[in-house]
Amino acid sequence: MTRYRLILMSFITLVATALLVFTGCEPKENNNGGGGTEFEELVIPNINRDSVYEFVKKQVDFGPRVPGSQAHKNCSEWFEKKFNSYGAKVTMQRFEANFHFGAKADAVNVIASFNPEKKRRVLLCAHWDSRHVADQDTDRKDEAIDGADDGGSGVAVLIEIARLIKENPIDLGVDIVLFDAEDQGDSEGEGNTTNTWCLGSQHWSKNPHVPGYRAKYGILLDMVGTANARFTKEQTSMRYAPTLMNKTWKLAADLGYSNYFVDVPTGPITDDHTFVNQIAKIPTIDIINRQPNTGFGEYWHTHDDNIEIIDKSALSATGNVVLAVIYNESAFQF
Hints:
The protein is an alpha/beta fold.
């Protein structure tokens, strides 16, 4: 574990900024007789770069996680065992996914709850399925993709966070939800195809794993694992959770990650957070890669979305920011 003063070097001023600006924590008087002020030190665990990378690779090694496939079934069973090993209360929320192309498949949202008895809670989420077609590719367009970044990276960060919560108990309820059937929607149909995407988050938002479930806020991770990842202030996030987004991006900058978390507004997208905001009414932001000229990146929905594009630095940067948010929330109500 690394204390806040060791995350960036020179630090008493930065510690003061991080704790005062983001949490409203007041300084306490120094009792050593020397005058002045001292600040509480917040201990935050750090992402293990190799561990989180291996969590991406494990998913990819199963094969494309398309609902209804054997790879999908095997991967869901691994999730359940892994979260159980970290001491979470695990709920496998099964539902039937009805896809726009006429197929149906058994799907499952994987939910790992830490400190389920606590009323003060936050939601962390990502989608875990991979797309059934490579519709943006020029070759093998009808074949499923690995989804190493689009699905696998966000899930890996959340599994690593679960591992760290077990090792570093947190005084906060944390619910990790891996949404299924997010990436099987209609990208070419006429009219409004919005509801053909994000089937797992739509189902969970209407049928939460705990009746009357509430969380203070949510953070969605999607495509967070490539070397040139660029996380912008997406408009749907800013509409529903502007305070959380602004605080998170400022915290990322103070931690030295402004090369990933850029202070640039971008248009709204339909992602799992859309339905969590609109149906579940939980203010939720989306940390998602948005490239200036290629949208989601040239690999998006192609066979290039494989383990070769995954970057350990991007994974750890994303995870460290989310860890800083939730441990601040635990200690100071971020």
